[in-house]
Design brief:
589 residues; alpha+beta; TIM Barrel; 8-stranded mixed β-sheet; 13 helices; flat
């Protein structure tokens, strides 16, 4: 009402007094309520903004100094800032971000303000970016320099964020590529991990997210052999899975065709059943049966007592042959008057399974065959008691006829799974190189021959191949030191590569030194690197290179709410970190 009155022309101050001081005076209680003054009742409301702003929400209500209302803890969050850097060349002046359930759900000049939404307003001057990414880090290893391999999952070392993790996080680095200090000859699996969170499940983005190879000390001529060994092992493993998937597809197609034929037979069986007046009335199977097996090598017929129970189309039961003392368990199906089951003897010396195939020729009368290996015997059974029996034996898993011949999958090898993912182009290879000759050998083998996705690590002489790297959109994670020296002259590798169209990313190459990454990047900008390129290198370029851009790297609906709030542009104006959010939760300073 006050907002509508203000819109209609009433002075804002008068509109506020119309819902506070004036009603108290009219009611004669102005000495206790209606305004905030010493001696009056501590009845007040805490708001998220201007009382006459339609997006303002109630943060709390106090009556007589005691909390009377508080919004739910797990509530939406709205961030308002003078500038939102959502992605390269996408600035939103006076922008807003809506966060719900740890995800960004809206971003723009205005966003929805759900009921009870918490508001963080950092205007004027506030500058919001995606959380920064350290593209090669040893955070979490606690100095352990053991060489990693493909079977080691670094995410197993991740738990609740500790002091070191949070120190890096508070600097604005919300994700790191967790890597061992050294890699085995077969490579080492890397993991993308968040620097804040209460447990492994929430912190690990992907593991493995990349595969590390180190050839920076290798003879360029030997690189095809060095990298060829793990690639060959991975290809053999991949081929075994490809063969299995091909065979499985053929099996399923054959099974589908067979089931279609069985449906036709079932329809015919239903017609035949109609001609058997008593065959399917009530429960045709449950009860006690006397079974007789004739012919074959047995001189006399063998009789057995069979107790069966029918549940839908599933049949379970027990068989007892008293003369030989043999017992067994039966499991199978009964459909359209046809019993199909397997018998597994309790005595391990009796070959199992023994297959039973029988037709309900008339009520309480089964005829069929019993097959054990190559031996087939005539079977006939009559139901002697229809009283339901309780089958206490557990149902054994029975291989259905339709599953016979199903191809078996290869054994899963954790050490080869990352190589399989690499060859399937699901994850990139991170290759530590140094010289131009090493870079050429890596590009020829991994990109030229195998068409794999790669990231070059360090790559001090990458400028020699800048045109090729830009054409293939291969990211270079530049060394931690901003300026490099060659032929007694300094050169700015990140700047020179970026000017030639090569995507770059930054690394700490250490544990908690990741907290200095924003400062190092600021120095890179001061020495000539474009600030927009630097922000992209810390965010979306790194995320795309590591194939985690569906979750982090930019401020877009659907992505994780990993955000850094500065008091100004972090690279042009040296803005300092005000707040850091990971999965929508603010990291305590």
């Amino acid at each position: 009402a006050a907002v509508r009155a203000s819109r209609a022309g009433l002075d804002r101050q008068a509109a506020l007094e119309a819902i506070t001081r004036i009603p108290a005076e009219i009611l004669g209680v102005a000495d206790r309520v209606g305004s905030l003054a010493v001696g009056k009742d501590a009845d007040f409301v805490v708001l998220s903004g201007d009382p006459l702003d339609v997006t303002t929400r109630v943060e709390g209500v106090y009556v007589a100094g005691r909390p009377a209302f508080a919004p739910p803890e797990d509530r939406p969050l709205v961030i308002r800032a003078a500038m939102v850097w959502a992605a390269p060349d996408r600035y939103i002046r006076d922008g807003q971000i809506l966060v719900e359930g740890g995800k960004i759900t809206a971003v723009g000049r205005t966003v929805p303000h759900p009921p009870f939404a918490r508001v963080i307003d950092v205007r004027p001057g506030g500058f919001v970016t995606p959380g920064f990414i350290d593209s090669f880090s040893h955070l979490g290893l606690a100095g352990d320099r053991t060489a990693g391999d493909n079977s080691l999952r670094l995410s197993q070392l991740v738990g609740a964020a500790d002091v070191t993790d949070l120190r890096v996080c508070r600097a604005g680095v919300t994700t790191v590529l967790m890597a061992p200090y050294a890699a085995s000859s077969m490579g080492a699996a890397l993991a993308a991990v968040k620097t804040a969170g209460s447990g492994r499940a929430g912190r690990v983005i992907a593991d493995p997210t990349a595969l590390l190879f180190d050839v920076h000390t290798a003879d360029p001529a030997a690189i095809p052999e060095v990298l060829g060994k793990p690639l060959a092992a991975g290809k053999k493993y991949l081929d075994s899975w490809a063969k299995y998937e091909k065979d499985l597809k053929a099996f399923l197609e054959k099974k589908k065709q067979k089931e279609a034929g069985e449906e036709n037979q079932e329809d015919q069986g239903k017609e035949d059943q109609e001609k058997r007046p008593d065959a399917e009335k009530g429960d045709p199977i449950t009860g006690t049966w006397k079974a007789t097996v004739r012919h074959g090598p047995e001189p006399k017929p063998v009789t057995a007592t069979v107790q069966l129970q029918l549940i839908d189309t599933e049949v379970v039961g027990r068989i007892t042959e008293s003369s030989l003392g043999a017992r067994g368990k039966l499991s199978g199906t009964f459909t359209a008057g046809h019993l199909e089951a397997d018998v597994r003897a309790d005595d391990p010396e009796i070959p199992s399974p023994i297959r039973v195939r029988a037709e309900l020729v008339k009520a309480d009368h089964l005829k069929g065959t019993l097959t054990a290996g190559e031996l087939s015997l005539a079977l006939e059974a009559r139901r002697t008691d229809k009283k339901p029996v309780e089958i206490k034996v557990a149902r054994s898993r029975r291989v259905r006829p339709a599953q016979e011949g199903r191809p078996k999958p290869p054994k899963v090898d954790p050490a080869l799974e990352p190589l399989k993912a690499l060859l399937e182009k699901k994850i990139p290879a991170v290759v530590n190189v140094s010289t131009a000759a090493q870079i050429r050998a890596v590009l020829d083998l991994l990109v030229g021959k195998h068409q794999l996705r790669i990231i070059l690590l360090n790559a001090e002489e990458a400028l020699v191949h800048a045109e090729r790297l830009a054409d293939k959109k291969i990211t270079v994670v530049v060394p931690p030191g901003v300026l490099r020296r060659r032929f007694y002259r300094d050169y700015h590798l990140a700047d020179q590569l970026a000017r030639r169209g090569v995507p770059v990313a930054f690394q700490s190459g250490a544990e908690d030194a990741g907290r200095h990454l924003p400062t190092v990047t600021l120095y890179a900008v001061e020495r000539g690197l474009d600030a927009e390129t630097a922000l992209a290198a810390l965010t979306i370029h790194a995320a795309r290179a590591l194939a985690i851009d569906q979750r982090v790297g930019s401020i877009e609906p659907g992505k994780d709410a990993d955000l850094v709030i500065f008091n100004a542009h972090p690279l042009l104006e040296g803005g300092r970190v005000l707040r850091v959010l990971v999965d929508g939760k603010e990291v305590e300073p």
